[in-house]
Design brief:
Length: 325
């Protein structure tokens, strides 16, 4: 779940991808943050009130461990990053991984870990990073909540090569959020926030849980080649045009992007996908980012970097390969 800055009093219509009425974004980014927290963030944090409903329980009236994490783009600040919020039903830790996670290095990609966190919701969790962590501008970092499986309040996942203190999971994959280390705040009045959960899929579409767009636009879905610098070629899906406001249950068709040619390409197994809100810069309500090679319909930004989220999509019959940590 990744959030960027502020909104007003907007109400999403669940499952339709529309808003009930126009939203006034005119006063401040703080107002947008308030509305987004209600219209978007509550989708995840509502698990506090009803964990069994959120996780389905184990059939005996007991819920499985569950977690929600929010990690946003942020400027460079010494050797630490701040996780905006983390909900851990059983307590534990929040680890920070570098891009090595997407290459299957679940252990070697750990570049930071929080102190032990009690069960509940925690805000502004500071995580010190290791000396070897790359904090160059644009570096992707992944926040991942972990359990304290042996109850010693010490993070033992790396030391035990994954045998202890494994991650919280959702839809069979680690709970994650993605942020980009950026520059200082850019001062733009355009802002967005979105939430994208791990999910099963038939391979032809995915669902973005919620998105708020100050100026309207689209949600593009990128594959992991985005993190290798392929900003245009990584686009594998795009939503219909979305009016300004808060939208929930936004379905995004895959492999049907104006200007792209996918041939017979399909989604297979388990894949990390990165949704990214885009503006409609030319006002034609058509996604032209790929076709114009990035000249039109660029992304919403925060701390000088594109607003992003991260989730794992698993096609029925997939091997569930990537993302465990």
């Amino acid at each position: 779940m990744n959030k960027s800055n502020d909104s007003r009093d907007g109400r999403g219509t669940e499952g339709t991808g529309t808003v009930d009425e126009p939203v006034d974004f005119g006063l401040s980014r703080r107002g947008f943050l308030s509305a987004s927290a209600v219209g978007v963030g509550a989708l995840g944090l509502s698990a506090v009130a009803s964990p069994a409903a959120a996780q389905g329980g184990d059939g005996n009236g007991e819920s499985e461990p569950f977690s929600v994490v929010e990690f946003t783009n942020q400027p460079l600040d010494g050797r630490s990053v701040v996780v905006d919020a983390a909900l851990l039903s059983e307590g534990g830790f929040v680890t920070i991984h570098d891009a090595g996670l997407f290459e299957g290095d679940a252990i070697g990609s750990v570049v930071g870990v929080s102190e032990f966190l009690d069960p509940g919701v925690h805000y502004l969790v500071e995580v010190e990073l290791t000396d070897g962590a790359d904090l160059s501008e644009g570096q992707p970092l992944v926040a991942m909540p972990h359990l304290d499986t042996n109850g010693n309040e010490r993070y033992d996942f790396v030391e035990t090569e994954g045998q202890e203190d494994g991650p919280y999971v959702e839809a069979g994959q680690a709970v994650v959020d993605l942020a980009l280390v950026g520059a200082d705040e850019d001062g733009t009045d355009q802002f967005a926030t979105l939430e994208f959960s791990n999910q099963p899929t038939n391979g032809s579409s995915v669902v973005v849980d919620a998105v708020a767009l100050s100026d309207g636009g689209f949600v593009a879905v990128h594959d992991a080649s985005l993190l290798e610098g392929d900003v245009i070629g990584s686009v594998v899906g795009v939503s219909e045009f979305l009016e300004p406001g808060i939208h929930s249950g936004v379905q995004v068709p895959l492999f049907d992007v104006p200007g792209a040619n996918f041939g017979t390409q399909t989604l297979e197994g388990t894949q990390p996908l990165i949704p990214m809100p885009h503006l409609d810069t030319n006002g034609n309500e058509r996604y032209d980012f790929v076709e114009t090679e990035g000249q039109e319909d660029g992304p919403y930004v925060e701390a000088g970097q594109a607003v992003v989220d991260l989730g794992f999509a698993t096609v029925a019959g997939g091997d569930g390969g990537n993302g465990g940590s």
